[in-house]
Amino acid sequence: MKPMTKNLWREIRASRGRFIAIILIIFMGCLIFVGVRAAGPGLNESLTTTVQKAKLSDVQLMSTTGFTPSDIKAAEKVAGAQAEATKFTYATGGRNALAVALYGFDRKAQLNQLTVTAGHLPQSATQVVLDKRAKTEYNYKLGQHFTFGNTSALKRRTYTIVGFADSPQYIDNGLRGAANVGDGTVRFFAYVPQSQLTIPASLLSVRFKGIQGHNTYASRYKKARDHKQKALKAIFNKRATTRSDALYQQALAKIAPESAKLAAATQQLTQAQAQVKQASGGQVTTTPAIDQQLAQLKTAQAKLDAAKQTAKKQTKTTYTYQDRSDLPGFSAYGESSERIAAIANVFPVFFFLIAALITFTTITRMVEEARGQIGTFKALGYGKWAIAKNYLEYALIAAIVGGVFGLLFGNETLPRFILALYGQTIPMIATVRLQWGSSALALAFSLVATVGAAAIVVRRELQEGPAALMLPKAPKSAKRILLERITPLWSRLNFNQKVSYRNLFRYKSRMVMSIIGIAGGCALILTGFGIRDSIIASGTRQYGDIVKYQAVVSLKGSAAKAQAVLADDAKYQSSTKVMADTAKVRFGDESVASVNVFTPKTDDFAHYIHLSTPKGQPIKLPQQGAVISQKTATLLGAKVGDHVAVTLTGGKRVSLKIAAITRNYIGDYLYLSAAAYQQAWQKTAKSNALLVRLKAQSDHQRNTLAHRLLQSEAVLGTSFVADQKTSIDNMSSTLNPVVMIFIVMSGLLSFVVMYNLTNINVSERIRELSTVKVLGFYDREVTMYVSRENIVLTAIGIVFGYGVGNALTWYILRQATTAQVMFPLTIHWPGYVAAAVLMAVFTGVVILVTHKRLQHVDMVSALKATE
After folding, report:
1. How far apart are CA 308 and CA 609, in angstroms?
2. Which of 183, 448, 595, 713 is the most exposed place for a label (fewest CB within 10 A)?
3. Contact indicator for 61, 236 with CB cutoff of 8 Å
């Protein structure tokens, strides 16, 4: 080895504590930066891989009259399209007559392939494959018999369970959609041989080969899919007319014999009337018998016309389109990954900046401490580059080791851990690709914080001559501080306290860096708790403070009939009639689709939905204008007094003034009084739903009530708030492990930062501390001589950390807000206590380590170091 190379390794060995600390800071910074930023893309790529392997359709069409081979050929006229028709319906079955999504199984089908988790696919007409959820949630087992309800369009009712499977059409094990049978909520899906279903194929799945290379959540994929879907709609808009006409002609052909008989009978009666008129010389035109037959013919004709009208309605073909975002749980998964990505754009960046700042300071202090060595090298004739290279390589090695290991661990551990947690509820193939952009950025920051710092300081030091460098820097002169001017306070401080406070203000750069490091660590810990508390608070506040009802009953018939069923339930408290609808709201260039519109029909609406301004002031529905939810107003960029365009489903577009903005966290809402609705649409709002207040219910009690309401034939369906809250809680719980990772890593960073800063402080002041020991101070007093400063800085850092933590949490939540959910800034007191306690514990550990180190200081060597 060359002498300078030997010196480099000696330097690393001599300062291994500091060297390891630098590596750890860079390691943790890169790990969090790359790992968390890789989680969002990893979630999307994993699901993309899963649905591509299962060949999930891009677009699905539902037809009121079924699909034919001609429809499949028509769909495949779109470039790259692959289409398959499937028999599909909703049915009831199994224990408690649960709602089931029933599909026809075709072994030759290529799209929407099932993934068998137990058993096998149907091989005979008597076998059925159930959703894996039927096994895990409802305890069905292989070999058991599964019986469908009487209304199921099946050739037989009972089948043998031969397998359980996952379907790409249902990615979230907790969501299966809604139905118009059973209790209105689909519990699981079932596949029987297609030949067993007695209905035409009502579901057409279409997959476009040319767009499968795109991430399924990427805007590029959505644009390509929308383009293909537009071409598909153009074809089927024509097919609807052709199909309707063909089916109508088939229906007419069935009643053609009746029509012919009726026409012949009419002709015979006309001839009979003519004969009567001729025989009577025009005096008599009919007879009682002819009149009777005419009446019978009119009745028959009326029946025939009614049959034609019925046939016209039954043969009218309409198509309903849905894409992947309409599948149960698909959009919610995408929003969840977006939230993680949004958090990753802020939290890890702040984390890494703190790590880089402390590393920069550490390297700077290290080079400044080596002034004497640099001067010696210059005196021995070494060139500037040879000397600089010694310290640059030191920093480079630390950056490369910490950075590379941090990148690899971050990219391979955190995303896979998060994917494993999601995999418990969402079956998918874990796919994590190296995030080259994030890795390059993290490595660049690491090099700037280490090599860059070393380069700046070495360049500055090398500008001085060998003699100046070999002399230690003159210590900073002491100055009177502000506390000294407060005589009553200063006079009550003992000697050690006065020294500590003077040193704090004497080394202002060290004080500022310590406060920044401690405040940054405390802020990161507090932010972790804040994200968790705020996510939980969105559901708690929405369904505790705002929504006071427990169910929404959509009416098909008389409200009185539904209320009679409700009144028989022991958990029923009260209900109110409302007009419930959905609307598209536009303001300027911005629009929000699927806004829930409520118009109350009674005066007790406030008992069911509490409307209040974002500041908490109650809102009463105005006679003119509308009350709009806070999230909707934010998306639109609208404020009180603005006019928005509102288009109800199937209704005309009207302009409404925003009379007030109400606090809301989940979903988009618009509220109107009956008078405001009348004024806007020039008609009376008709009640079509009930908001129902219920006492606490179990899942079984809710299912029973929903089933009874459907059986009354006065209800279209029932939506329970408990189900929505569970969905939100499940969505929120997926982020809890991510938040815990943030808290743990932030705590580790805080500890390393505090240790490193204290280590630097002690190293810089080792002669001063040795002098104090020589003067007779006890070990504990020497330790407190330094540690007292740490305690004060920790207290100041915690206070600043609280402020920074709140600001950082607010910003992250703002970035994580989606089209459906906004998060209120909420940090409960345990978060503040935990952040303060952790920082205090870290300070205590650092003080203990410092105490052990100071006990073994070689005082003579330290005092003679400059000689």
Report:
1. 47
2. 713
3. yes
What pLDDT is stored for residue 606 in this prediction?
87
Summarize the chain as % helix, strand, coil (round to 5): 60, 15, 25
CA distance 273 to 83: 60
Burial class (CB in 10 A: 0-12, 13-18, 19+), 447: middle
* 200 vs 88: CA distance, rounded Å: 9
Give the Cα separation of 193 and 123 in Å (integer). 8
Q: How confident is the model at residue 58 (pLDDT cuts 50, 70, 90)?
A: very high
**Comparing C-alpha atoms, which of 658, 688, 546, 683 is closest to residue 592?**
658
Q: Is 495 exposed, middle or buried (0-12, 13-18, 19+ CB in 10 A)?
A: exposed
> Which residue in this structure is represented by tokens 């069935």?
254
| Phi-psi group of 161: left, alpha or beta (phi > 0 → left; psi -120 to 50 → alpha; rest → beta) | beta
pLDDT classification of 191: cutoffs 50, 70, 90: very high
Above 70 in pLDDT, residue 747?
yes
Tokens of 301: 């004709």
Task: Assign 447 to helix, strand or coil.
Answer: helix
Rounded mean pLDDT, 236-247: 84
Secondary element (H or E) of residue 238: helix 219-279
- How far is Cα of residue 386 from the mean position of the Cα atoms in its chain? 54
How far apart are the C-alpha atoms of 149 and 851, rounded to whole Å? Answer: 77
Give the range with max mean pLDDT: 85-89, 714-718, 748-752: 85-89
Q: At what angle do helices 779-816 and 495-506 cross, to 10 degrees?
A: 50
The label of the residue with tokens 């203990």 reads: 848
CA-based nearest residue to 495, from 839, 163, 788, 287 = 788
Query: Angle at CA 278, nearest 5°, toward 274 and 284?
Result: 80
DSSP string computed for 357-403? HHHHHHHHHHHHHTHHHHHHHHHTT--HHHHHHHHHHHHHHHHHHHH
- 546-599: pLDDT as tens digits: 899 999 888 887 788 888 888 888 888 999 999 988 888 888 888 887 788 999
Question: Which of these, 671, 668, 646, lies nearest to 656 by C-alpha position?
Answer: 646
- List, in order, residues 6 or more apart from 730 with CB less than 8 Å away: 174, 425
Give dist(CA 149, CA 707) in Å, integer: 13
CB–CB of 41/431 below 8 Å? no
Does residue 684 contact residue 601 with C-beta atoms inside 8 Å?
Answer: no
Residues in the chain: 867
The phi, psi pair for 659, rounded to 5°, reads: -85, -30
How many other β-carbons are positioned within 10 Å of the β-carbon of residue 450?
A: 29
Q: Which residues contact 188 (CB under 8 A, 6 or more apart)?
A: 98, 100, 101, 130, 131, 133, 134, 137, 138, 176
Question: How many whole angstroms from its chain centre is CA 411?
Answer: 21
Q: For residue 109, give Cα distances in angstroms to 191, 380, 414, 730.
A: 13, 82, 38, 33
Q: Do 235 and 57 contact (CB within 8 A), yes or no?
A: no
DSSP state for residue 582 in the 8-state scheme = E
Q: What's the pLDDT band for 400 if we cut at 50, 70, 90?
A: very high
Continuous segment of H or E residues that includes residue 48: helix 16-53
pTM of the model: 0.74
Could you give the residue ranges of the DSSP H alpha helices within 118-218? 132-136
